[in-house]
What does this fold into?
Amino acid sequence: MKADNKKSGGIRFTQNLRYTIWLYFMVFILFVILLLWVFQLVIMPITYQNEKIANIKNVGKIISAEITNENYKEIFDQAAYDNGISIKITDFEGNTLYEADVLAGGSAIPNKDNNLMNQYREMILNSPDNKIQLIAMNDKLHSTTLLYATLIGTPEEPLGFIFLDTSLDPLVSTMNILMKQMFYITLTLLGLGMIISLFMARMISRPIMKITKSAHALAEGNFNVEFDGRGYEEAEALATTLNYASTEISKVDNLRRELIANISHDLRTPLTMVKAYAEMIRDLSGDNPEKREEHLNIIIQESDRLALLVNDILDLSKIESGNQPLTISEFDITEKLTEILGRYTLLSEQQGYDFTFESDGNITVKADVLKIEQVIYNLINNAVNYSGDSREINIRQKNSADRVRIEVTDHGDGIDEELLPVIFDRYYRAEKSRRDIIGTGLGLSIVKSILKSHSYPFGVESKVGEGSTFWFEIIL
Ligand code: ADP
It folds into this structure.
């Protein structure tokens, strides 16, 4: 038994599973043994005696009924023999009318002792229902008998007495046999109980111990560890869950490594550029305003790229850590889309992008407005970045009974079918080498995280050479 100090300050006792199973099992077996002994020692003698009493009374009834029968002797002999009961019938004065001395010397009914017979008669006459029932011990023969005697006739017109006596000794010998049996049963039960409980305890705790060992290995960073819970269903379920968890953890771990590698690579490139151009200005172009302007612009662009990357990483980690709960409010999604598109006016004027917006009409939705705004931004920015020469971007808002569907379509190069399932993954960039497109590879995973936290469906349809449509649905 171990005492754990819990955070709450209380003390909790934990017990070894094996020991607990063994203990409970043994307690159960001891209880069963106790029950058996109680039945044998207490209930058995009582039921045996009750049975004997019922038996002797029954014979008493037969005798009373058949006493006038011509063949009474045969009937009584038979009853005495069948039931192992000594019978004596006397007249009122005590003269023996019939006698079947089955118990012989062990009987409590004396053959000659008139004193004792007188005592019995006295007792019968004095008892309220003119019957006596007593347990007699014969010290000489060490025998115990049950004596039952009753008056024949009525107290007013007494005819005689019936004395019946049956041995209770079989009970004693039976009890002795049973006690011996019980002793062996107890020993066997205890032994078997011990073996079975130890076996069971081992069987139940073994998979758990194995799983614990594997979990230790996992905690130490061995992601290839196999959880084996063979033995019973619950342990298997636990092992399956842990195997799943370890695969997921290893995925996350791989992703973390990959992410750090990618991020450091992407941070290093603009930093190198910033350093190189800064040196260039210092050493070469400092005095040439045109060159200097050009080089400074590159430095600014690269710094922007760095800022974007850092912001995206921060956004994503905040969203994914769940530290940013959704701030749900009501807003008009059509107005929001129009407002966002308004911010692209400069881009369309300066660089010739053509934005179209089709809407089924104003509609109010309930969502985290800032986050939904970010989703729309990211999708439109991607459309702008990947629209190629067509420079046409269509935004559609489709209302239906229970949802509003937003679609952002571009007519650029499209996305390879096999890449569609992975583009929403963190840090995925189809064309990693294209530095002309400013991107971090995190935009779509931010979209995915936000939409998932809202439980909104989303997806993409794309054809290489024709363009792509990114969509999501705000559930009303
Ligand atoms: P990035 O910062 O690289 O745009 P995203 O997570 O936004 O990162 O997108 C991941 C990748 O998905 C992009 O690198 C690009 O290859 C692909 N992609 C995203 N949007 C589009 C689009 N509209 N057309 C074609 N490819 C796209």
Summary: Residues 382-383, 385-386, 410, 412, 415, 423, 428-431, 439-445, 468 surround adenosine-5'-diphosphate (CB under 6 Å). The first strand starts at residue 2 and ends at 5.
